[in-house]
Amino acid sequence: MKALSGIRVLDLSRVLAGPYCTMVLGDLGAEIVKVEQPGIGDDSRAFGPFIEKESAYFMSLNRGKKSITLNLKDEKDREIFIELVKKSDVLVENYRPGTMEKLGFGYEELKKINPQLIYSAISGFGHSGPYSKRPAYDMIVQAMGGLMSITGQPNQAPVRVGTSIGDITAGIFGAIGILAAVNARYETGKGQKVDVSMFDCQLAILENATARYLLTGDVPQPMGSRHPSIAPFEAYPTKDYYIIISAGNDALWEKLCGVLGTPEYVTDPRFATNAARVENVEALYKIIHENIVTKTTAEWMETLDKAGLPVGPINTIDKVVSDPQIIARDMIVEVEHPVAGKMKIAGNPIKLSDTPGEVKYPAPTLGQHTDEILKDLLDWSPEQISDYHK
Q1: Which residues are annotated as catalytic?
Q2: Cβ pair 159, 151 in contact under 8 A
Q3: pTM score, two decimals?
Q4: Average confidence (pLDDT) over 169-194
């Protein structure tokens, strides 16, 4: 048994936010039926890099799903879709608001077909408000949501976060909303709409930046790797690269001073408290930098880790995927795709003790499971399936 065994998700989403949401649900045991446009499929099937003409981008986000192709403007396919809605617990879409309504498949219509359906809509700006009909991409919401304004070095051009965090956070919040609605359904017997805005999600994750402005009126600015409220808490150059040192309280600061051979700074009024260290962060940086730059990252990792200090190297991706901690926790898994062959992808980070998740199987080829779904979910006969394809 898996945590979400028995939950069927009808996935109309494409590219990233929606597929990430349904990937999380699928890894936890839900059955994901991905509905794609015939001949084209999810837009991300066209995104490189490619392995045997199959998109690695698409395959990384759609593992463990079944693909059926339906044209939602074709009468016969619309009837199939309606039957799938009747047999599903959850529907996920990330179209621009109004698109599903134009097709006649908005929430108000679908809940008449299946009152227990949980309808999750992930969009750039949500299904209400003056921006609701605007198109959006990840970088648009990173910019408008304030994240780019606090990312990068001071007095430099704005910088996009290196991963599509606008899409990914919306996908994660979408999954949380769906699980909350599933739980509520046990009490009410009814489904509901889960409306998640990428823009909203960016504000939700700004944490101290939002709090700082709302409480003080100070507009946060980019600080490189520094933290606005804790010091020392940033990247320091070593003899060969960089290391992150995060001495987040006075006890850790005392330990760091001991390792660096500078015990006099423990009681120095400029550095005796965290507030003082934040106030005098430039002088603090100079003192630590002078010591750290004398040894390699590996040497400092061994010394500082042994002292119980929170430190870490800045790993490139090749080092991350081969890290022994990542390997030990099965965060790189191998699947065998019917076309691309054996490939390694990121694993499931949620480790449940009794009902563990898993990457069940690779991403589907376009329409790979159409006949299987018609047969197993809709009880079609071989003759019906044959007639459908004529």
Answers
A1: 227
A2: yes
A3: 0.95
A4: 98
